[in-house]
Amino acid sequence: MNLRQLEVFQAVMQTGNMSAAARLICITPSAVSKTIGHTELQLGYKLFTRSKGVLAPTPEALVLFAESANIHRQLEQLRSIAVNLREVDQGQVRLAAIPSISHEFLPMVLAQHVARHPHVHLEVRTLHQDQMAEVLLNRSVDFALGYYPHPHPQLVNRLLVSGRLHLAVTREIWQRAVRVKRADPISFMSNTPLIRLVGDDPMRAVIDELGARLGVNMTSGIQVQTSRLALELVRLGLGWTVIDFLTASNLDPATMVAVELDDLPLLPLYAHHAVASPPGRQAERLLAQLPGLLAQAMLRNQAPVP
Q1: 284 or 221: which carries more pLDDT confidence?
Q2: 106-163 pLDDT, tens per residue?
Q3: For 252, phi and psi rounded to 5 degrees?
Q4: Closest CA to 244 of 267, 263, 226, 262
Q5: Within the chain, where are the H helices?
Q6: Which CATH architecture has domain 166-260?
Q7: Are 234 and 170 in contact (CB under 8 A)?
Q8: Domain limits of the chain?
Q9: What is the CA radius of gyration of the chain?
Q10: Is pLDDT above 80 for 64?
């Protein structure tokens, strides 16, 4: 079975009839029928039975369909890579970022880039860390932004900046902490619920370590999947959490407090790209703007906490 026969066979299996398969792969129904007939002749057994206008796969066809599905996916990925290679330097930048960077930092980046380069098309995806390798390796995006190095061996990690983690809590709770424990208000958090993370978020271990150090009861409280949801619960007064420096820079000082955690390791922000496909000219131009914009964003964190 050659690649063309495989494509036609997969199309028929997916759609259930010759006409729909022809539309899916942009050939005529007669071409689909001839290809299937020729394939059956080569294989020496039937792939489909036809009864009263209904096309049904044979047991042999079901086995071939399951075994060839991965090959078909790889062909589709190859087709996507071929198209994306053509578009890399044609006035387009495609990037991805984790939610906290996408929501807290990228709007400023995009506004400045559009002002400087209005004819460059921008495409932005918001992804979690575990989704980045696939889109980078198949060249769906030029680069991705995330905290901590990505562990995939075929990705390059380019450090852009490092910043402090912050304790986030409502102003009301923080002022109470200062009144009760003026010398060490952070220790007041040991009796305040900690909003923790679940899953494989790299910040989970840092948050849990701080909670354990403060003596927080780790068997109770609320756990959520994203830092963004954790922060929304903090805004409602349900406890405290740990946030990145970009999120801290955008908090409303009238209702929220972000306290620098100087005793925790710095949080590194990286640009990731595939080893085999470094960013093109347009993407590199955008990447060159990021350190300066990140420095501007971090300056907003410099105000002392009351």
Answers
A1: 284
A2: 998 889 888 888 888 899 999 988 899 999 998 899 999 999 999 999 999 999 999 9
A3: -80, 110
A4: 267
A5: 3-15, 18-25, 29-43, 59-87, 99-104, 106-116, 132-137, 171-180, 203-214, 227-235, 245-249, 281-299
A6: 3-Layer(aba) Sandwich (3.40)
A7: yes
A8: 3-87, 92-162+267-299, 166-260
A9: 27
A10: yes
In sequence order, what are the beta bridge partners of 159? 270
Q: Which CATH class is domain 3-87?
A: mainly alpha
For residues 80 and 96, what is the distance between their CA atoms, to the nearest angstrom? 17
pLDDT of residue 183: 85
φ, ψ of residue 90 to 5 degrees: the values are -110, 55
Is the pLDDT score of 301 beyond 70? no
CA–CA dist 142, 133 (Å, integer): 12
CB atoms closer than 10 angstroms to residue 227: 24
- Structure-token pair, residue 62: 């079901």
Of 21, 109, 9, residue with least CA distance to 63:
9
Supply the pTM of this predicted model.
Answer: 0.68
143 bridge partner residues: 95
Report the topology of domain 92-162+267-299.
D-Maltodextrin-Binding Protein; domain 2 (3.40.190)
